[in-house]
């Protein structure tokens, strides 16, 4: 009877839990029960830890091909000389100058320019300057500047005569091209170097003036050629006529005596410095260049006796034009309505009226209107 009363009730707790365990056992398959747990994640390797070497039996992958620039060369002296001769034959061509000059720079960097090969390298520089106007062409300025700047590292290997010519070419290829920069520091540094070379020139003699007159007379008999200077701006100071056509001749190949060679060298240096004055003058329309040009032109005028007659006339014209420009800037008005003066003139005008005293310059203009705040 009692058993009939409890037929509708659930079984005891122990029996129910046993059934749940049995059912779970039935659900778990033998394959899943025998499968081992997954291995733990591998620990991160240190970046400083070297990889283990491959076993000898395992083949290694071929190394990747990389493009490397050779800074040294194992070429023999004969091969270096042949390379320099080949560069010499091509560097005269303006269309091939860029590539030829880069090859010449590579020879410098590789240490191939030595005492035994210096004459052949000088022939490269001489061929590059066979036309003294090409170095200032807009498309070639950077390459000329790079070549003659790099050549400074091996200039001590050249003979004294070659060094003198190299210094003259450097004026045209490096300093003159620095005058076309947009960097005020580079421009001022170039004008400073030009001033130093002007100061180092000897005083011009009557023989120098006579030689210049004879050369000018001979040039007028020949067929006139267009001006070698190519510039989009007009010649504001009439200095283009001083770039002599005869400068295209090589000075090194001259067979004259040392005295005559020195005269030719001095003539070439004067003309190179006049060219620098010409290039600087053409940049006078840039306000930030005006102060440096004013100082350079004044210095050339103060050392005018170091130049020949025709060059002295051009420098006088340059300085007169500079002074006229200064007067216009002080009297005229610019577009902004302010006085069109450069930085040097502005400071000169400002401090010319300032009252400066060690004891009394406390406030503005020395009026002692500053209040004491130290207590």
Automatic annotation (TrEMBL):
Region of interest: Disordered: 1-66
Segments of skewed composition (Low complexity): 14-25
Domain of life: Eukaryota
Protein name as annotated: Uncharacterized protein
Originating organism: Erythranthe guttata (Yellow monkey flower)
């Amino acid at each position: 009877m009692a058993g009939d009363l409890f037929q509708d009730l659930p079984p005891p707790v122990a029996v129910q839990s046993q059934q749940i365990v049995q059912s779970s056992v039935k659900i778990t398959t033998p394959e899943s029960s025998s499968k081992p747990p997954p291995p733990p994640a591998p620990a991160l390797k240190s970046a400083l830890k070297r990889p283990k070497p491959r076993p000898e039996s395992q083949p290694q992958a071929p190394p990747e091909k990389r493009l490397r620039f050779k800074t040294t060369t194992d070429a023999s002296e004969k091969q270096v000389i042949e390379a320099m001769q080949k560069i010499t034959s091509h560097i005269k061509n303006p269309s091939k100058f860029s590539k030829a000059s880069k090859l010449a720079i590579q020879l410098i960097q590789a240490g191939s320019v030595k005492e035994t090969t210096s004459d052949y390298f000088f022939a490269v520089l001489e061929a590059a300057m066979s036309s003294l106007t090409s170095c200032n062409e807009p498309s070639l300025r950077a390459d000329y500047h790079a070549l003659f700047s790099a050549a400074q590292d091996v200039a001590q290997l050249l003979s004294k005569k070659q060094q003198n010519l190299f210094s003259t070419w450097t004026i045209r290829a490096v300093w003159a091209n620095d005058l076309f920069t947009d960097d005020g520091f580079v421009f001022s540094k170039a004008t400073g170097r030009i001033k130093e070379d002007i100061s180092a020139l000897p005083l011009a003699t009557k023989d120098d003036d006579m030689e210049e007159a004879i050369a000018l007379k001979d040039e007028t008999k020949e067929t006139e050629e267009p001006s070698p200077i190519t510039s989009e701006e007009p010649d504001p100071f009439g200095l283009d006529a001083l770039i002599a056509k005869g400068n295209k001749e090589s000075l090194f190949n001259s067979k004259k005596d040392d005295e005559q060679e020195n005269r030719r060298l001095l003539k070439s240096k004067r003309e190179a410095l006049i060219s620098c004055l010409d290039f600087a003058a053409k940049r006078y329309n840039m306000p930030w260049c005006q102060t440096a040009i004013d100082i350079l032109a004044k210095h050339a005028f103060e050392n005018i006796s170091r130049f020949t007659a025709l060059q002295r006339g051009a420098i006088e014209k340059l300085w007169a034009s500079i002074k006229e420009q200064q007067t216009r800037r002080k009297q005229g008005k610019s577009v902004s309505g302010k006085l069109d003066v450069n930085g040097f003139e502005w400071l000169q005008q400002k401090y010319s009226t300032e009252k400066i005293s060690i004891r009394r310059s406390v406030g503005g203009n020395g009026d002692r209107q500053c209040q004491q705040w130290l207590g």
